[in-house]
Amino acid sequence: MPAPLRPRPAPAPDLLPKIIMGVDPGTQIMGYALIEVRGQRVDVLCYDVINMKALGSNHAVKLKRIFDRMLELIDEYLPDELAIEAPFFGVNVQSMLKLGRAQGVAIAAALSRQIPYVEYAPTKVKQSVTGSGSATKEQVAHMLRQTLTLPPIAEASKFLDATDALSVAMCHHYQKGNNAGVSGGKSWGKFLADNPERLGASTSSGKKKAATK
């Protein structure tokens, strides 16, 4: 009689794929990036910006654009966690308020899909990526080019805003997700897996991504 088959051991938690969304808030241009992490391997899925300069001075319209685009990205890539840069303290109070609203709307979009989020101070992000909390945008982008394979981006003028968002995602990866879950809740991908009837209008590319995981 053949020996009974032994069940295969479950993959180690740190080898399971995890998708992290990084966001660098802005009221004119908001950077975003998505990375897939398997252990120490990091693949950049996309990095780009939400450009709101053509929307004029109506702040409410810009906030709606941020919310709608965040939901599109979440439904397409099904991130497990959101890492977002905390607003820095500046001299212009009105600019600070607007930036805080933009960050809040991005967080609200993630929470609406039950995605936990973590905030990181700008100096923490720079320190994690370059080793210096006072690094410039150019230095951050240079270090990311050295450590990652970056897909081409359509417009060079977008590059630094997009790499800023990518650095936030990488900062969260370097922290091993130790700060994840401050908002509680399940990931959007887990929610869809538990509630397939709610998949609804998710994009076909999102379905393809989920099917290959």
From TrEMBL:
Co-factor requirement: Mg(2+)
Binding-site positions, Mg(2+) 1: D24, D161
NCBIfam families in alphabetical order: ruvC
Family the UniProt entry places it in: Belongs to the RuvC family.
EC number: 3.1.21.10
Cofactor annotation remark: Binds 2 Mg(2+) ion per subunit.
Disordered, as annotated region: 193-213
UniProt entry keywords in alphabetical sequence: Cytoplasm, DNA damage, DNA recombination, DNA repair, DNA-binding, Endonuclease, Hydrolase, Magnesium, Metal-binding, Nuclease
Annotated binding of Mg(2+) 2, by residue: E85
This protein's record includes keyword DNA repair: yes
Localization (cell): Cytoplasm
Descriptive protein name: Crossover junction endodeoxyribonuclease RuvC
Domain of life: Bacteria
Organism: Hymenobacter negativus
Keyword Calcium: no
Catalytic activity from the UniProt record: Endonucleolytic cleavage at a junction such as a reciprocal single-stranded crossover between two homologous DNA duplexes (Holliday junction)
Enzyme class, UniProt record, top EC level: hydrolase
Listed GO MF terms: hydrolase activity
Reported function: The RuvA-RuvB-RuvC complex processes Holliday junction (HJ) DNA during genetic recombination and DNA repair. Endonuclease that resolves HJ intermediates. Cleaves cruciform DNA by making single-stranded nicks across the HJ at symmetrical positions within the homologous arms, yielding a 5'-phosphate and a 3'-hydroxyl group; requires a central core of homology in the junction. The consensus cleavage sequence is 5'-(A/T)TT(C/G)-3'. Cleavage occurs on the 3'-side of the TT dinucleotide at the point of strand exchange.
HAMAP family per UniProt: RuvC
Oligomer and partners: Homodimer which binds Holliday junction (HJ) DNA. The HJ becomes 2-fold symmetrical on binding to RuvC with unstacked arms; it has a different conformation from HJ DNA in complex with RuvA. In the full resolvosome a probable DNA-RuvA(4)-RuvB(12)-RuvC(2) complex forms which resolves the HJ.
Catalytic residues (positions): D24, E85, D161
InterPro entries according to UniProt: RNaseH-like_sf, RNaseH_sf, X-over_junc_endoDNase_RuvC
